[in-house]
Amino acid sequence: MIDLRKLEHLGVTSSSEDGDIHNNDAFFFLENCPAHRYEAIITDPPYEIGIAGKDWDCKKLRIDVLAYQFHRVLKPSGNVFVFCSDFQFGDWYRELSRYFTKLRKFAWCKTDSVGFNKGMFQESFELGLHVCSEDSYFGTEKRKNYVVSGKTSGKERLMPDPDEKWSTKKGEKSLHPTQKSLEVIESLVTSLSKEGDTIFDPFSGTGTLGVAAKTLGRRFEMVEYGFRYHIAAWDRILGKE
Question: Bias regions of kind Basic and acidic residues — which residues (predicted)?
Fold first, then answer.
């Protein structure tokens, strides 16, 4: 029997009344996406740091292309939020500032950060960048530009199936090494969109954005290149994880 969890089927789309997940290349999908389609883009692209030895996180990311395409497919009053690594932040800020007038740093402070680096401070946050135009929507609830919450481990983190061969190295035990906290993504969805809006994530991983959007009454459209992650995301959307 063929194990569909480990194959790539580019072009496959899983659809529901709440939204779609496309197993596709993010750049190809964006090139063929109609203009002004989404009210918000919330995404977590590769950091280019080779986390957990993953090849997809070692390749050079065309941030200039992504910034242009984000502006093109976003509605004029929409919001973009991008998680990024420290050294990427300047590139994201420079490229997105070509198209948006308002830019603001964001830091997700992890309350459950683990590990110890002798003689050094322990990093316990990740950077993000929120950009928009002058008339963009922002939730009525007052929010600080950081979230000191959101567990990064525990029951929420997806694990491989018992019969799957998976690495036991640090950072590779979970199904996806950079799965974001649902609590943090729900906060972003609430702040940057209204009920009924469509939110886009071209690097959806295990689909946390889709779960948050469905729970909060938004529609979602997501793209994920890895077919195994596509399946995991769809199971979460259907409540099977």
Answer: 153-175
